Amino acid sequence: MKEQLQLSWGRFVFCILILIVIQILLLSATITDKDSWWSAGAMLSVFFSFSIFAGLGWARLRRANDASPIARTDIAQILQHLLGPPIPAVIWLGLTFLLPFGIFLVWVFTRAA
After folding, report:
1. Distances from the Cα of 103 to the Cαs of 67, 68, 74, in angstroms?
2. Residue 2 belongs to a domain
3. pLDDT, tens digit (0-9, with 9 covering 90-100), for 19-62
4. How many C-beta neighbours within 10 Å does residue 109 have?
5. Three-state DSSP string of the chain
6. Residue at 63 is within a domain
7. In whole angstroms, how far apart are CA 87 and each of 28, 94, 95?
8. Which domain, by its residues, includes 45?
9. b vs e for 77-99, b when ≥16 Cβ sit within 10 Å of the residue's Cβ?
10. Residue 16's pLDDT band (boundaries 50, 70, 90)?
11. Phi/psi of residue 84, each to 5°?
């Protein structure tokens, strides 16, 4: 008998809360003046995008595990469900990395004005 995955939302929320604490510690060390808020916004936008992406992947993994149990050792199938379809995942992650550059461009143009 293979060991099944334990995929409660409580586990997911616990992991996200740990990441939130780390993010708060990083931001509290980096915000020193009014110009630092733009970089904090860029960091938070990436964090929230990854959190939403992970939540959607977790829901897909839970749905697939409910349909047919997934073994803990089947890493390829777990990653396939966490990442989802490749094209939307690449687009999502690409836009996630472009968003901070957009925030920095807005900061540069508003500061120059």
Report:
1. 41, 43, 39
2. no
3. 999 988 888 887 777 777 888 888 889 999 999 999 999 999 99
4. 9
5. CCCECCCCHHHHHHHHHHHHHHHHHHHHHHCCCCCHHHHHHHHHHHHHHHHHHHHHHHHHHHHHHHHCCCECCCHHHHHHHHHCCHHHHHHHHHHHHHHHHHHHHHHHHHHHC
6. yes
7. 36, 11, 12
8. 9-112
9. ebebbbbbeeeeeeebeeebeeb
10. very high
11. 80, -160
Q: How many domains does the chain have?
A: 1
Q: How far is 76 from 113, CA to CA, in rounded Å?
A: 51
With 0.90 as the threshold, say if the pTM is over it.
no
pLDDT tens-digit readout, 84-96: 999 999 999 999 9
Report d(CA 12, CA 60) in Å as an integer: 13
In a domain, 4, yes or no: no
- Which residue in 69, 87, 86 sits closest to 78, CA to CA? 69
Q: pLDDT > 90: what percent of the chain?
A: 58
